[in-house]
Specification:
Length: about 150
């Protein structure tokens, strides 16, 4: 059985050349479309890239500002702590000086009393010594009341 659709080698070669030309033309069309899509993608991405760069710069500026603020706060806290410590030391010194002055005045007053009333001072001293000895012995005995 023979087919009516028999092609000559020249016809087959021409069809092959035409198919090749069609393939080249299609490839060129696809390449042109790919270039157009790529260019559009670049154009659409470019503002986003610029926005990302700007956002990055703003973030860096913000971090630098926060770091500077943190340094300032730490410095202020340190200075405040030093000031409080200095004030506490000065206040303690004043209190100690005041107490020392009160002891000095009490000592001077006792010396004056002893000089003015030596017998009375000796009796008061003996009574205070006895009272103190009684308290010490009582504390040493504790709660044991048998003796």
């Amino acid at each position: 059985m023979e087919s009516d659709n028999v092609k000559t080698p020249a016809q087959l070669a021409e069809e092959a050349r035409q198919t090749g030309r069609d393939a080249v033309e299609a490839a060129q069309g696809y390449a042109a479309e790919a270039r157009r899509v790529g260019a559009e993608a670049v154009q659409s991405i470019r503002p986003s890239i610029e926005d990302a760069k700007a956002t990055g710069r703003e973030g860096l500026d913000t971090v630098k500002g926060l770091a500077g603020d943190a340094r300032d706060i730490a410095s202020d806290a340190s200075a405040t702590g030093r000031a409080y410590a200095k004030d506490a030391v000065n206040a303690a010194g004043r209190k100690l000086h005041d107490v020392r002055g009160q002891f000095e005045r009490a000592r001077a007053s006792c010396e004056q009393y002893i000089a003015d009333e030596p017998v009375k001072a000796s009796l008061i001293s003996a009574a205070a010594g006895a009272l103190l000895a009684t308290l010490v012995l009582s504390a040493l005995r504790g709660g044991d009341r048998r003796y």
